Amino acid sequence: MQGGAGALWWVGVFTVPGVRRATLGGLDPVLIAAFDVPLFVCASLLAAVGLRWAAWIAVPWTLLVALGMAAYSTLTGLAGWGAVAMVAAALGSAAAGVLLRYGRVPSERLLVGPFAFREAERTTDRRNLARTGRQLAVFWVCFLALLPLAIAAIEARWGLRIAFPVPLGVVGGGCFAAGSALGIWSALTMSTRGAGTPLPSATARRLVIAGPYRWVRNPMAVAGIAQGIGVGCMLGSWMVVVYALAGSCVWNWVIRPHEEADLLERFGAEFDAYARDVACWVPRRPRALPR
After folding, report:
1. Residues with pLDDT less than 70, the chain
2. 70-76 long-range contacts, Cβ below 8 Å, gap at least 24?
């Protein structure tokens, strides 16, 4: 897919002036193609047909070009779509290289520090609530304020802003408010019913099946996604919306399997029954109320 997409892009660069301007700005397409076609397109195709050594050409080259295009677009305000395409290609190359190296994505290596699963120490609900409040504050400041503002600024600098209709900003505000309310409710329930916090390194000591957890297994994740999409709509930034959706994909396919494996190991049949009764993402009325 990467090799084919790269080949089609180069065809577009040399046949459609708009593609060349949007993705390369003032860069010389002949000079760039002289390096990129063999090191990106051909190396990707060779890796795809089984010559694994070619991946170790394509991966570092793609990362280097992504950094270069991001810097060029930031400095000049040109070729923003080229920077976005190369960042996406770099992520794809890195993922493909990891799959070739390990045969899978070793996501367990991400579970370190605050993301390593450990039960919270025995303490009072008041202390758990205080720790949860600090965690929420850090999450909101970093992931719902600083990062979205930086992404929106990059989007504007790269010339990629798309005008959002005013009603969409209002809808975004509603999503953010609803997500925030759900997140706070979930955090309070986790702290008072679970004797822990939402952070994996101080996770709940008891299985929580009360409050919003009666309706959906991951209300904190649902809340975070709604908040992120809401922030993107309020900022008028499609890149922030993509950032929120991408975060949900990473959480669902990289983090959630480890979290549920930890819950199954600690709570056994109780969690197994809960997982069968309560949906992961879409809230639904539970068939049996928690005790």
Report:
1. 286-291
2. 72/25, 72/27, 73/25, 73/157, 73/158, 74/154, 74/157, 74/158, 76/25, 76/26
Return the number of other C-beta atoms located less than 10 Å from residue 256's C-beta. 16
Task: For 175-227, write each residue's pLDDT tens digit.
Answer: 999 999 999 999 999 999 999 888 888 898 999 999 999 999 999 999 999 99
Tell me the longest C-alpha to C-alpha distance in the chain: 69
Per-position DSSP letters for 118-143, written without gaps between them: -BPPS--HHHHHHHHHHHHHHHHHII
Measured CA to CA, the distance from residue 112 to residue 201 in angstroms comes to 9
pLDDT recorded at residue 63: 96
Structure tokens at 216: 């959906």
CATH architecture of 110-277: Up-down Bundle (1.20)
Contact 167, 247 (CB under 8 A): no
Is the distance from CB of 284 to CB of 213 less than 8 angstroms?
no
Question: Which two structure tokens, joined as six digits, stand for 270?
Answer: 């109780």
Question: How many Cβ atoms sit within 10 Å of the Cβ of residue 69?
Answer: 27
Q: How far apart are CA 73 and CA 78, in angstroms?
A: 5
pLDDT, tens digit (0-9, with 9 covering 90-100), for 92-122? 999 888 988 888 888 888 888 778 888 888 8
Contacts of 143 (CB under 8 A, 6+ apart): 224, 228, 247
Nearest residue to 37 via CA among 67, 14, 15, 21: 14
Q: Report pTM.
A: 0.90
